[in-house]
Here is the input.
Amino acid sequence: MAAAALHTLLEIQALDTRADQLTRRRVTLPERAELATVEARRSRLAVDRAATGARVHELERTQKRLEDEVSMLEDKATSTDRQLYSGTVTSPRELQALQDEAASLRRRVGAAEDQILVVMEDLEPLVAEAGAQAAAGGAADEQAASLRAAVAAEEGSIDEELRRVAASRAELLADVPPALVSQYERIRERAGGVGIARLDGHRCTGCHLELPNREVDELRRAPAEQVVLHEECGRILVRD
Ligand SMILES: [Zn+2]
Here is the structure.
């Protein structure tokens, strides 16, 4: 195997590191975390809006029932009045009864109207609350949509770069013996993504430890095309 293959493998390592960074960035996009927060807020708002809507609906039904009651009582009072002044009833006792009946109906109208006022007072803040919740919901919807678009755009550009990295890697791979690639990948997997590193003076650039003189001498004496490992971290070391 030519020593050049080891240098090519270093380039592959650089691409793999880049791909790892891109993949990590893809899953940790800040917009994605923000989107999760906004989605949670949207769910909470939906629950609140449903609860407020149900209360508004119930009060409106009560108001409608009371208004129907008022209108029914007023109809009755009107027809009682008509009877009272029609001249067809002449008995004082019957006239008194009709007068009492009309007065009682008007009292009930008054009571129902008072209840309507109470319901309307209760409704007013609830309707305002529903409006505010709808506005907040709309704003959260817009925010979620814009974050979703931002995430998609970021993912698109990351994926584009990942494709370029993969294409470069595939090209370089042709110049490295498959057995060496497998060895590199095995080491890379168990060594936190870095399978090959340069020996920089006495320092392994994979684990950043200094190598003892004895080990450096041995590595430098080994034939250039021989694959040597850093004893300490197990990574392939490339000597310049
Ligand atoms: Zn090392």
